[in-house]
Amino acid sequence: MELQRSSSFAVESGDTKFDDDGRKKRTGTLRSASAHIITAVIGSGVLSLAWALAQLGWIAGIVALCVFSLITLFTSSLLTNSYRSPTGTRNYNYMEAVKNNLGGIKYKICGVSQYSNLVGISIGYTITSAISMVAIKRSNCFHKNGHDAGCHTSNNPYMIIFGVIEIIISQIPNFHELAGLSFIAAVMSFSYALIGIGLSIGQIAEGKIGRTSISGTNVGVDVTSSEKAWNSLQAIGNIAFAYSYSNDTLKSSPPENLVMRKATTVGVSVTTIFYLLCGVLGYAAFGNHAPGNFLTGFGFYNPYWLVDIANICIVVHLVGAYQVFSQPVYQLVEDWCKSLWPESDFIVKEHQIVIPFVGIFNMNLFRLIWRTVFVIFTTVVAMIFPVFNSVLGLIGAAAFWPLTVYFPIEMHISKAKIPSFSLNWIWLKILNFACFIITIVAVAACIQGIITELNHYQPLKSIS
Questions:
Q1: Most buried residue among 36, 143, 169, 228 by CB atoms closer than 10 A?
Q2: Which regions are flagged for Basic and acidic residues bias (predicted)?
Q3: What is the per-residue pLDDT for 38?
């Protein structure tokens, strides 16, 4: 997975190890592409869906999930058609597709959107992982001292622990190529999603259900009218974050876009089913008081060991996911510096270090310092803005329109040469504009949520 919403494919080229354009042969299949999409989508975004449905209610919440699913499926289908540029050459990542189909300033805007989103996701994963680690400690405290004990714990030490882990593993060359990484991520993401679903079903079966309604949280009872409006828009951002994903690499024969389209259909369909189960069952279990993160908000106390396992799965998943999303940022800066100072030993020289029982490890001084600084930056920002729902909503809302809607639609219009003001052109522009408005209001709501929640925090002193 090169970049958020990236798309790359390959064609078999006899028995060689290269595609017919001389690039390294792609290795993905329809099955692996579908699995990677499911793995990438079913991430930390699933944890906030019960809260999102509580803000929107049964009708608007379910409709929003289905609408975002359909929009993602449709625009992903358009994106697969942009795999080949107008000249017929392959585009190996999203930015390359935008450059060859739209060119100019739009290519640069795409890059800013993508890399900003990747940095934002890294910050969001730091927050989520720390909250899950704290939840494990609190779960055991509740089990020992009772549910009224409070067991409040600072998040900061756990964000630092997560940061230290990321600093260490960020030095692994070609981390994204490690065998089994996607498999482990798939197991972890499915595990905590299924545990959440199972715990919700158990709570519903016991009759311990919260108060729900068609419109969600009630004005004057659960929230004020302004809180209702802001929270509903923030919930839209959370749902948008949940539908962020990357496409896989394929080794199919042309037309490659048809294979990727099938993979997208399978991946988004399975994901939507999971999301509906998590959102609907979570809302049914907790009602209008559903916590922002339904596995760390402690609506579930028992069995405590199962809650612990779910949060361990979240942490393991996000430790790897952080690297998957930060690797393109690392590579961008490192390639840029190498192009500027190709003769600098500090930038380009690899120092071989022998590690007993492991082998030779290649260490680069610039890579060591730059990646360490990046992880420290994301950790400090996470400690300053430790608000789970608002941060995830902001990341999702800010990325949704440009990366999921605008560029795929504009590339499709350009590639298909759709005449201006034709019926197809008009309805695509209407969809584009409607999603833009949704993004603007959701971003505003999430920024307002961050400001409001930070009033309850002292800088760098967040407590769960």
A1: 36
A2: 14-23
A3: 60
